[in-house]
Specification:
- The structure holds two protein chains of two kinds.
- In chain A, helix 4 (about 40-75) runs antiparallel to helix 5 (about 90-125).
- The longest helix of chain A has about 35 residues, at about 90-125.
- By secondary structure, chain A is mainly alpha-helical.
- Helix content of chain A is about 65%, strand content about 10%.
- Chain A has helices at about 5, 15-20, 25-30, 40-75, 90-125; strands at about 10-15, 35-40.
- By secondary structure, chain B is an alpha+beta fold.
- Chain B is about 65% helix and about 10% strand.
- Chain B has 22 helices and nine strands.
- Chain B has helices at about 1-20, 30-35, 40-50, 55-65, 75-95, 100-110, 110-145, 150-200, 285, 300-315, 320-325, 330-365, 365-370, 375-385, 385-425, 430-450, 455-480, 485-505, 515-525, 525-545, 550-560, 580, and strands at about 215-220, 225-230, 235-240, 245-250, 255-260, 265, 275, 565-570, 575.
- Chain B has a four-stranded antiparallel beta sheet, with no helix packed on it.
- The termini of chain B are far apart.
- In chain B, about 60% of the residues are buried.
- Classes of the chains: A mainly alpha, B alpha+beta.
- At the A-B interface, helix 1, strand 1, helix 2, strand 2 and helix 4 of A face helix 5, helix 10, helix 12, helix 21 and strand 8 of B.
- Strand 2 of chain A pairs antiparallel with strand 8 of chain B, so a sheet runs across the interface.
Chain lengths: ~130, ~575
């Protein structure tokens, strides 16, 4: 199925995650009314596309960092002259440490942008139920 | 004595903290996902407790001591795995609302075969990972208090089983968060003191070439060991060498020598440190740079580096005991925040660990000779500080080590027991205690069998299988509506089989009889088994007909923001959980 297939069909109600979990309980399953959320499949498909594009963009950046790391380190043919205070070359610590810091900044930035994307989607999302 | 008391204290404290975290552990949600009420910071601490295992705590410092910069691929890869989780996995997985990974895949793909297959693969991955923790426990308890290896193995299994039976995930969450604090203190406090002492004293700089003893050094070989002596050396021997007893000075010609258990050899100053046969003597230049082809299988260092990165990054994102931790958050957004906090924690932790290896190369090169590189963190404080302060530092490190293998063992056991009881036996929490006890009963004898197997081999095996079996299917099911049950099943079978066979060929030495390139490919398989599993899933899915019915509802569940205002409506038209909707 292509993503376009997600856009087909009428508006549907999608359960809130806590409701979905609660529905596993037999007593809730029998209830006539449930707590859920409404979302148009077309809106959801659009949101999915944007979330996926964002995650893939950050994923490619991660891939670039990871792919470049062995290359950068292999370019350090010999330790720099002099080991400060009897310690191994700064590159030894700086490069892996730098990579770990980059990972943190990458994930932190993605979290903020993903939250903003979802906020934007929510702001434009119609809360007027259709078909129910 | 201080160390033994500290180990006992952390064990008791872990049990007490775990029991305090239990209030109403009666339902499946209590046992498997801690009622989904864990806040991001505490969950991040628990995730770190789950992730920072004996392999990373003790093993990484030991690997850096033995092989140098090449080994930083492991922490970089593990940290990259959390980025993969933050970008692609945790939020949609949490929003879907499944209790376990098999349940998620079964409901997402609407196929019971997938659930059962994954429920079989998960305990295998978990068991191998658990064995690494048990090996670490046996080694640490043996080194710290002189108890036999089996004591550590049995003690860890018993403690973890008791903790799990008392309150499942709720108990484990409390204990793991607490244990992570101990782990962080166990790494950061000693390393800060050691660096301060090191810089304050006028220590000699690192040596060029291979490590040498800078003074006459008496080395005791607790177990029978085969060492490689690089140059003819006259050493004083008290014990047996090559089967002959000595109590005098002996000239040992260059080459391999069998050193008897309990033998003490006094190596003269200036002697290159004889290295245990599984350790390659690495010069300062090679130790301090990446891509030293000489000590990698098949000599393809760059390929091995990339494959290690793939295995650790993609494999971590597929380790079930870590994935299920993110299902304990209240929302998908909180799960994403948890992953970011985890990255902050592990960045500090992973930056500190290699320092122990670097210090060990300066003050404890004899570990290269006994093969006890895994104990470098426990040895270095005494060598640099000494006396009671040194013993206190060792106790702090030991407390962290005990916390590391207790917390990871608990996480692995709960993921495996959850998969067995919830997805394979289908009995929810009714079977959870039985599955937990069964997992413990299987782990103890196997833990005793792996005494001679390297921790890093066990961890590498489990991450390679996870990377090739779970992660590709997980990522595709979260982001690609076209994935079918048949495609996922084919991917899991191909990924699991190829990764397992490659690791077996490498571990048994079969791969070394082939060409150098094939040896390399089998020793580090993730770089080709992971793409193979992805291609299999895509090709078979495209050829196996239409995707899962109602896939758009599932994608809405996974990707609609948590903050969408809930409404009430009649039950019939509501898109619910796939099982309740049927």
């Amino acid at each position: 199925m292509d993503d376009d297939d997600l856009m087909a069909g009428p508006r549907q109600v999608v359960m809130h995650p806590s409701t979905a979990a609660a529905r596993r309980q037999a007593h809730v399953r029998a209830a006539a009314t449930v707590h859920g959320v409404r979302a148009s499949p077309a809106d959801v498909a659009d949101l999915l596309r944007r979330q996926r594009a964002l995650a893939v963009r950050y994923g490619l950046f991660l891939l670039a960092v990871v792919a470049l790391l062995p290359v950068i380190l292999s370019m350090i043919d010999t330790p720099p002259p002099g080991w400060p205070a009897g310690w191994p070359a700064p590159a030894w610590f700086a490069v892996p440490g730098g990579a770990l810091a980059t990972f943190y900044l990458l994930a932190s930035s993605h979290r903020r942008r993903a939250a903003r994307l979802e906020d934007t989607w929510l702001a434009g999302h119609s809360e007027t139920p259709e078909g129910l | 004595m201080i160390v033994a008391l500290a180990v006992a204290a952390v064990t008791v404290a872990s049990l007490v903290v775990g029991s305090l975290g239990v209030r109403h552990a009666r339902t499946t949600a209590n046992f498997l996902v801690a009622s989904r009420a864990v806040r991001p910071r505490w969950n991040a601490a628990a995730v770190c407790g789950d992730t920072l295992s004996a392999a990373s705590y003790l093993g990484l410092a030991g690997l850096v001591l033995a092989a140098g910069l090449d080994m930083v691929w492991f922490p970089v890869g593990w940290a990259a795995g959390f980025v993969v989780m933050a970008l692609f996995v945790v939020a949609p997985l949490r929003r879907f609302g499944a209790y376990t990974i098999p349940e998620f895949l079964r409901d997402r793909l609407d196929d019971r075969r997938i659930g059962r297959t994954v429920a079989c693969v998960i305990p295998i991955i978990g068991l191998i990972y658990l064995l690494a923790q048990l090996k670490g426990a046996g080694v640490v308890v043996e080194a710290l208090i002189g108890a036999p290896y089996w004591v550590g193995v049995v003690a860890v299994v018993v403690i973890v089983v008791v903790n799990l039976l008392s309150g499942g995930m709720r108990a484990v969450t409390s204990a793991q968060g607490f244990q992570f604090i101990l782990i962080a203190v166990g790494v950061l406090v000693p390393v800060t003191v050691l660096l301060a002492v090191w810089f304050a004293s006028d220590r000699p700089g690192p040596q060029d070439g291979v490590p040498v003893f800078d003074e006459d050094s008496a080395v005791t070989y607790a177990a029978a060991t085969t060492v490689v002596v690089d140059v003819d050396t006259e050493a004083r021997v008290s014990g047996t060498i090559d089967g002959d007893p000595y109590e005098t000075a002996v000239v040992l010609p260059a080459g391999q020598h069998d050193v008897g258990s309990g033998t003490t050899v006094t190596w003269p100053a200036g002697t290159p440190v004889p290295h245990e046969t599984t350790i390659t003597a690495v010069s300062a230049d090679d130790w301090n740079q990446v891509g030293d082809a000489g000590d990698t299988p098949g000599g393809q260092a760059t390929y091995v580096a990339y494959s290690l990165l793939v295995a650790s990054a993609v494999g971590l994102a597929g380790l079930p005991h870590i994935l299920v931790r993110f299902t304990t958050n209240a929302t998908g957004g909180q799960a994403r925040r948890t992953a970011v906090i985890v990255l902050g924690f592990v960045a500090v932790y992973y930056s500190a660990l290699p320092i122990y290896g670097a210090l060990g190369r300066q003050v404890a090169p004899d570990l290269l000779s006994t093969g006890g590189t895994d104990s470098v963190m426990l040895v270095v404080p005494q060598r640099i500080v000494g006396g009671t302060p040194g013993e206190l530092l060792v106790a702090i490190v030991a407390v962290g080590a005990v916390a590391a293998f207790l917390s990871t063992a608990a996480g692995v056991m709960i993921a495996s027991a959850g998969a067995l009881s919830h997805d394979l036996l289908g009995g929810g929490i009714r079977w959870f205690p039985h599955a937990t006890i069964a997992a413990g009963a299987v782990a103890i004898p196997l833990g005793l069998l792996v005494e001679s197997v390297d921790i890093s081999i066990l961890v590498g095996w489990s991450t390679a299988i996870a990377a090739s079996s779970i992660t590709p299917v997980l990522l595709l099911s979260l982001w690609w509506p076209g994935l079918t049950a048949t495609g996922a099943l084919a991917s899991i079978v191909v990924g699991t089989t190829t990764a397992t066979l490659a690791v077996l060929a490498s571990v048994t030495g079969l791969s070394q009889r082939s060409t150098p390139w094939l040896d390399t490919l089998l020793a580090a398989p993730a770089a080709w088994t992971v793409p193979l599993a992805v291609v299999t899933a895509v090709v078979v899915s495209r050829r196996s007909g239409r995707p899962v019915a109602g896939v758009e509802r599932m994608f809405a569940r996974m990707h609609v923001p948590d903050r969408l205002r809930p409404e009430s409506g009649p039950a019939a038209p509501v898109v619910g959980h796939p099982r309740t909707a049927r």
